[in-house]
Design goal:
- This protein has 463 residues and is of the alpha/beta class.
- It folds into two domains: 213 residues, Periplasmic binding protein-like II (D-Maltodextrin-Binding Protein, domain 2), CATH 3.40.190.10; 221 residues, D-Maltodextrin-Binding Protein, domain 2, CATH 3.40.190.
- The protein is built from 19 helices and twelve strands.
- The strands form three sheets. Strands 1, 2, 3, 4, 10, 11 and 12 form a seven-stranded mixed beta sheet that branches. Strands 8-5-9 form a three-stranded antiparallel beta sheet.
- It is globular and about 75 Å long.
């Protein structure tokens, strides 16, 4: 992150803390004279709830939920939905918190919410959940607990979950004589890439038509990379290195809200070094191309034969507008003897800026219910947090001719691991992200460059 942006973020977070102090912190009491305990309130006057989200693909289905909510549940509450792109979304929400002008409700992310909790700008949902008897066990195991702070305050109800899988260009696989099943059965290791690496080499083609596993392959002039990085790694590598590192034995933090992290892990260094070496060998897209063009754009334009990506991208990768025939395969089995996929889940949070937290809660509760999650599931955009609604999503994908079992198998067989939850994710990203870029540019070894970064991260978390 450039210095100017860091200064803006620091200023915004400082202002957030000042706002939080004025609001009295996250003590679980609903602001604005609401009825967070006792009987559910009635709403005799018209109320508008402002709700923000970043995914334009999901917006139409939440608009349907909002219409149903007003028509069938709370006729005096209208929901105004605003959608922003990912970067603008988080810049906007941070600035809105700083000025006490945040929306009533917003889609929250595990990488962000601990910092919001620390700044005291979110409303605890404990009293609401207890009063209305919301069953937090109705969601996939572990999702609801992710949104509970060490103090026991709950700051979100799960809306969906996501996993990671291999994304394959079927035409390129056919040209190389490779089947989807070969990827589904592939094994990976950081030494030579294993059978997964052999497939990636066969899919790589230089500008003379020579494949990566053939004599005469020119790594300096590649037309199609066997594997395309989805993004520029960053600190947590959700769609890039995380699955490979975890299958190699790496654990980012020993527990949620930990006061230290394991960025000096030999297993992480081995994994990141593998990708740096394979970029240099011409089998993996250079980081410069990923940063300038975008990993998914490279894949969809035929510059890479495979990538790893998240389940939220299925409708983009397999939609009617795409010209690339796509298949999905589970992630490769790693040296630890199992696959591994990061398990992330979004939730909806209420802000201290909400003028009527009770009304905001009614909308949050509805989005977290089967009534709304069934609607979202029918859109086949994401997998809802309630298993029955997720089954609807899977059936919708099947009806569209898309086999998404490569994403759900990780949940079915228990090979998921949680997104690291810390109260300093943005500071960790600022520290580790540039180091990852250095490694992928071969400006130093992973072991040498990650060691001092790990010390700085542990200093941040321990402060």
């Amino acid at each position: 992150m450039r210095e100017s942006k860091m200064l803006r973020l620091f200023a915004a977070l400082l202002a957030m803390a000042m706002v939080a102090a004025a609001c009295g912190g996250s003590d679980g009491e609903a602001e604005g004279g609401g009825a967070a305990s006792g009987e559910a309130p009635s709403f005799d006057e018209p109320i508008t709830i402002d709700y923000w989200l970043w995914d334009g693909n999901q917006q139409p289905f939440y608009e349907t939920c909002a219409a149903d909510f007003t028509a069938n549940v709370q006729p005096n509450i209208t929901v105004n939905i605003e959608q922003f792109g990912w970067g603008d979304y988080w810049d906007g929400i941070t600035a809105a918190f700083a000025s006490d002008s945040a929306p009533d409700v917003f889609t929250d992310h595990l990488a962000r919410y601990p910092e919001f909790v620390e700044s005291g700008v979110l409303v605890s949902l404990n009293d609401f959940v207890e009063r209305d008897g919301v069953d937090v066990d109705q969601y996939f195991p572990g999702l609801a607990e992710l949104w509970t702070s060490p103090d026991g305050d709950r700051f979100g109800l799960p809306k969906d979950f996501d996993t990671i899988a291999m994304v394959l260009n079927e035409d390129m696989l056919a040209d190389a004589g490779i089947t989807t099943e070969e990827f589904a059965n592939a094994e990976w290791n950081p030494t030579d890439g294993g059978t997964w690496g052999e497939l990636i080499q066969r899919l790589t083609i230089d500008t003379n038509g020579v494949r990566g596993n053939e004599e005469g392959f020119d790594a300096s002039s590649v037309e199609v990379y066997g594997f395309g990085l989805e993004g520029a790694f960053g600190a947590f590598g959700q769609t890039t290195f995380s699955s490979f590192a975890a299958s190699n034995g790496y654990v980012a933090t020993d527990e949620p809200w930990a006061t230290s992290a394991n960025f000096d892990s030999p297993e992480l260094a081995e994994t990141v070094q593998f990708f740096a070496d394979w970029i240099a060998a011409g089998y993996v897209t250079p980081i410069e191309d990923v940063e300038s063009l975008g990993g998914t754009t490279i894949f969809q334009s035929g510059g890479a034969a495979t990538q790893t990506n998240g389940s939220w991208m299925i409708s983009t990768l397999s939609g009617d507008a795409t010209e690339v025939p796509v298949a999905y395969a589970p992630l490769p089995v790693g040296p630890e003897g199992a696959r591994a996929s990061m398990f992330n889940g979004l939730a909806d949070s209420i802000t201290k800026s909400a003028e009527n937290p009770d009304a905001a809660w009614e909308w949050v509760k509805y989005m977290a219910s089967p009534a709304c999650q069934d609607v979202v599931g029918s859109g086949a955009v994401v997998f809802p947090a309630i298993p029955s609604a997720a089954a609807i999503a899977q059936e919708a994908h099947t009806a569209n001719g898309v086999d998404v079992s490569a994403f759900t198998v990780h949940v079915d067989d228990g090979t998921t691991f949680l997104f690291p939850i810390t109260d300093s994710a943005s500071r960790i990203e600022d520290t580790v992200g540039p180091v990852m870029q250095q490694i992928l540019r071969n400006e130093g070894t992973a072991a040498d460059l990650l060691a001092p970064a790990a010390e700085e991260v542990n200093s941040i978390l321990g402060s």
